[in-house]
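Problem statement: downstream parser choked on a complex file, so we are re-checking the raw output for the flavin mononucleotide run. The parser issue turned out to be on our end (a line-ending mismatch), but while we're here, posting the original submission so the record is complete.
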Amino acid sequence: MKVAILSGSVYGTAEEVARNARQLLTDAGFEVLLNPRARLADIQAFAPEAFLAVTSTTGMGELPDNLMPLYCEIRDLLPAAWRGLPGAVIALGDESYGDTFCGGGEQIRELFAELGLREVQPMLRLDSSVTVTPEEDAEPWLQDLIKALTQ
Ligand SMILES: Cc1cc2nc3c(=O)[nH]c(=O)nc-3n(C[C@H](O)[C@H](O)[C@H](O)COP(=O)(O)O)c2cc1C
């Protein structure tokens, strides 16, 4: 199965989580696309069969700049070919930001809903105020995702 990882990061933490996810998925036999500067055409050419988003939050609940062009292209086009595909989101944030905690991930969840993706697993929230090992923290959730995708 082909999995496209959409990643958004300001300082590189989410990028590390995304790279670790690529490793786990690849080890489990998936074909993975991970390119932090991917545009819609790159994702379409890959013909994904599942989506994983890994994004941090910046500003006041905003998506990182590197993910914005792709986010806008997907939102404007909403490719019908992706309807019904499995999708899941890992959101990085900091609970001390209050209401905007993991706001970037929330925006991607909404986008996935508009796309008609099936949320196969509840969004994982990684709080940088309590953990310094987000890659490891994401691993049990990723193992559950692998199970959900292979069912
Ligand atoms: C300027 C700035 C604004 C932030 N705004 C939010 C926010 O609104 N909500 C949130 O949950 N986290 C917020 N964060 C926390 C980051 O999302 C969190 O530290 C994350 O782990 C950073 O990942 P990155 O290195 O991939 O960018 C903010 C961090 C910074 C530096």
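For whoever reads this later: Residues 2-150 form a domain with the Rossmann fold fold (CATH 3.40.50.360).
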